[in-house]
Amino acid sequence: MTEPRDPDLFDWRPPLTARRETPPVGRTAGLVGRATPGMPPRARARHFSAKALAQRVRPVRSATGEQRRVMVKARVVRMTPGAKKALMTHVRYVAREGAGADGEQGRYFDARGDDADARAFAGRCEADRHHFRLIVNPEDGRDLPDLKAYARRFMGQVESDMGTPLDWVAGAHFDTGRPHLHILLRGKREDGRDLVLPREYVSHGLRGRAQELATEILGPRQEQSADIEREITADRFTRLDRTLLVGVREGQLALESIPAEQQSDALRRLVHLETRGWVTREGPERWSVPADFSERLRAHGDREDRERAAAKALWGSPWSGQIDRLEPLEPAAGKTVTGAYVGVQPIGPHGSGPQALVMETFDGRLGHVRLPSLDAALVLDRILPGAVVQIHAQARPARASDQTIAEVAGESGGVYSAAAHRTLRPEDSPAFIDRHLRRLEATSREGACRSLGEGRFAIGADYPEAAAAADRAKLGATELGVRVRDPRPLEAQVRAQAFTWLDRNLRGQVDIPSGGPLAEEARIRLQERAGVLRAWGVGSGEPLRLGKADETALRAMEVKSAFERLGANGKPVDLARAGQSFSGVYMEKVHVAGMPYAVVEGRHGITLAPWRAALEACRGQAMTGVLQGGSVDFRFGQQLGRGQGLEL
Q1: Which of 37, 317, 424, 576 is most buried, taking the most CB atoms under 10 A from its CB?
Q2: DSSP assignment string, 426-450
């Protein structure tokens, strides 16, 4: 819940200027030459506001244009009786597993070193009136050479602005696609008084300081010229191409149909497209544009992004140096591809967007596929390279949201709007309606509907089919899913006390394809596995075959081993039962008997419940759950529940 603002926390407003040197003699009569830490707050504010002082050491840049962009969020948290527990939850979240630069657990640092004690910091905050939580997210965080050094310089500038040393700890997150900082700042000055951040400083000053520092380190942001140059020569669909399509009439584009201020860039773009074979010159300042122009460019750009991400996934893996073997995998609807997991990387700059999964198939290919989002790849979280995974393809289904849009528009004269949706379906939540508006904004850009402005869209009778066709053109005719068949590499399956993927072959459930080095290794490991099982007295016949009882025994061994590991601290471990309510903290995901489970640790025991990708956003949080019909309804905190997107 958002903490109420306290006007006492914002009682003075120092201007957002750079530090000043001592002014020249003769220009500051009656003014103090330099600000000192002992100055009262209002005197310090007057000092920095004085117009007669010398010029700034570093010129102030505007918030737009050449300055690097940094998003800064600041929150004041009152230390109420229940705030200590919330603070410790936040401390654990910042230092969560996988948040580090190389996928390791996140670590705290401060002004003095790289191994700060965040729990001790939280203890110092207990008697304080409040503390601050800052998120500093540079747009070019990947380009900063040292995010920790950047944080220390940033907090040093805040100390200078506030006129007091500050007590703070910070953690850097690298697992979201854009490296950023979480900073915890104690609400006390060095002399023991409450630390007060001015309202204007919180709203604008922190961001201004962060942007000035990022610009100083990385240089000015040449936004317009650099972006346009990239768009002119890009082998993908760009915003400039969208401008070109507006001027197309019956497959023909005349340069004069482009706005005058964009004709120069448009001409250079058309020349590039002509050399690449995507448009054809028909005469002076006139080109022929194919009907599938945007689809071809998008497909080409996506293929390049996939290849780049797939090559990056090989770095540091046993397949390093085999980039020349990479090839796209495009299974048809209803088909599956099985192989060894290599790695996964985001396609493009957004870590939560489409992902490139790389795998070595049993028929000898080192291939990559496109998964639609990070959620689709979360089942591979903390899976070792070499694990046996399977890709399955199905025809891309129509979206239920498109059918809802068509039904609402059909009852509203062919026009969809949020007001019409609320009137016709008052039980739908605002967040649910907002998702439909975002869907329409996307499909209107693809020509499946027409925007009328002010959140209103003209919907044709064939809208569901047009939207589905746009999805197929943009995302492909099939939708891919991934399943972990065995979280262990082949060599680890040989002596595993579990029912492994190799055992499925001995059980007659799968066959090992031929044609590649992975298939040859699988046959060797299968012989070794058969020898181990014979020594354990499992299976019979020559060659060795496993029956249903053998499978049950091996699965029981795996469950027992997993329970012993999870219950090492003395807590009992149990599987969630139908109708059973359980509570605790979601700790991790484990694979038991071929299925992923969420480990929920409560005060008196540990429960294993069926895992879902949406849980990963709530790792480390307290939750309750009920198993019903083979799936679990998870609820987090005191207010989250049904209708808020967390039920599974």
Answers
A1: 576
A2: TTS-HHHHHHHHHHHHHHHHTTSSE
Nearest CA to 333 out of 398, 397, 392, 399 is that of 392
Q: Give the number of other Cβ atoms within 10 Å of residue 165's Cβ.
A: 12
Number of Cβ within a 10 Å radius of residue 169: 23
User: 574: which 2 tokens?
Assistant: 């149990």
Cβ atoms 272, 232 nearer than 8 A: yes
Q: Which residues lie closer than 8 Å to 198 by C-beta, 6 or more apart? A: 10, 11, 12, 13, 14, 205
Task: Measure the CA angle with vertex 60, ends 55 and 64; round to 5°.
Answer: 160
DSSP 322: -
Count of C-beta atoms within a 10 Å radius of residue 239 = 9
Amino acid at 494: V
- pLDDT tens-digit map of 248-297: 999 999 988 988 878 888 888 999 999 999 999 998 889 999 988 988 89
Query: 594 phi and psi, to 5 degrees?
Result: 80, 5
Between helix 463-475 and helix 400-410 the angle, nearest 10°, is: 150
Quote the strand ranges of 365-499, DSSP E. Answer: 366-371, 388-395, 415-417, 450-453, 456-458, 478-486
Q: What is the 3-state secondary structure (H, E, C) of 594-635?
A: CEEEEEEECCCCEEEEECCHHHHHHCCCEEEEEEECCEEEEE
Helix (H, G, I), strand (E, B) or coil at 365: coil
Rounded Cα gap, residues 519 and 501, in angstroms: 13
Please tell me whether residue 167 adopts helix, strand or coil conformation.
coil
d(CA 397, CA 289): 30
pLDDT in tens, 36-75: 556 665 565 454 444 333 333 333 444 444 678 899 999 9
